[in-house]
Design brief:
By secondary structure, the protein is α/β, with parallel strands linked by helices. The chain has two domains: 226 residues, 3-Layer(aba) Sandwich (Rossmann fold), CATH 3.40.50.2000; 237 residues, 3-Layer(aba) Sandwich (Rossmann fold). The protein is built from 17 helices and 16 strands. A seven-stranded mixed β-sheet has the order 1-3-2-4-5-6-7. Helix 2 runs parallel beside helix 17 and helix 8 packs across helix 12. The longest helix has 18 residues. The radius of gyration is 22 Å and the shape is globular. The chain starts with a strand and ends in a 5-residue tail after the last helix.
Length: 482
Amino acid sequence: MEEVDVQPVSLDRLASILPADRAARLEASAVRARASFGDRVVWHVNSTASGGGVAEMLQTLLAYGKGAGIENRWLVLDGDPDFFRITKRLHNLLHGSPGDGGPLGQAEHHHYQGVLASNLEQLQRRISPGDIVLIHDPQTAGLAQGLRRLRARVVWRCHVGSDFANEYTRVGWEFLRAYLQHAEGLVFSRRAYAPQWADDSRLVVIPPSIDPFSAKNVPLTADQVASVLTTVGLVADGDPDGPVGFTRRDGTPGAVRPHRWSSGVLLETEPPLLRVPIVLQVSRWDRLKDMAGVMAAFAQAVSDDAAGHAHLVLAGPQVSGVSDDPEGAEVLAECRDRWRYLPDTTRRRVHLASLPMDDIDENATIVNALQRHATVVVQKSLAEGFGLTVTEPMWKGRAVVASRVGGIQDQITHEKDGLLLDDPADLDTFAALLHRVLADEVEASRLGEAAHARVLDGFLGDRHLDQYVDLFADLVADHHGP
């Protein structure tokens, strides 16, 4: 197992942008946590140190936890390709999708258990009785029983799910059910995601959050945005004024490096000019994100001159940089095939960006610049656990058009702080919503301002940390515990 090093960050940084009552509540939570937890370590275990919203949240929350004087540690489990194929299958099933259609029988249980047994051997050298262990997503569910035998207090957090049960969700939950009976708490981003067999007494709902001070969300000037995008080759005609620096999560300085678009940052086509309007979707290369549907709807939306001369950028990670997602390369290849069949005039305005992942803080800075540069950000997911790729541009004051699925509908109130698509398969309506924002700068600005206020109110780390303190304090107060 790999331990991820996280440097402490003072709660004062987060408190500096909060209303006074929330800043006071955050400090009170830190005091209560130190008193309740004592010398216990709070461990987090997940499947990757980079490449998704879970890893980004862990970086932030552990940093603030350490800054508050709580001993937080983060471990990433080891797995082989077959293990990650099985857990990706589970990921898709819990979203209500068939995924690759592969089996989840005794052979898959045996392999899943074998990989996690090897990880548990490493955990038993680290975990002390009474420690709190928060294990994340299907990859880790099979650790619960072994961790309880080590007398740890065990909570499982699921970041994915579907609002509606179907044959696929039932198969996925049935695979996990026996493993999860050993967890003392079950945390979901939405109550609707919990399976019917889950005991209400163990359920907690904790929506995700973002950190306004991370490399992905820290303020950038217009000149900095232009310099970043020009340096990495995502726009064609900017004039970078020297290297753009950023602060890494360990506190050391970094700088955005040049990346030639022809080597993979922008695939197949010349980058757009800096001045053109940009429609942006940022996500993993995942079929549930429906990149092909976004391309098709964009072609409809820009067929009218009223939408200007907008370009579409579909941005995802370089597929070799996301260790726990074996489908990424396949989905990217499918998107490239779909792109080749677009009409010539549209194809020149659609760009597939594969962003470097070897430096995750540089990657975050590039995404930050892209989101701030975009005229409108979209997330036309067919299913979504929560959707931090919606939260992030909302914080940056962007107009967002997204599917009314999963946690997206908890963030956006239609017509107030964004626009929601009721049916993700309805390309005509999606194209109309997209055209509406592209054609009306005043409307885009209004939606963006309201979006920023919505994130400030409900989706920053202070609320998230408060809820974790409540959960863990209740857990260790249980007189049956170590």
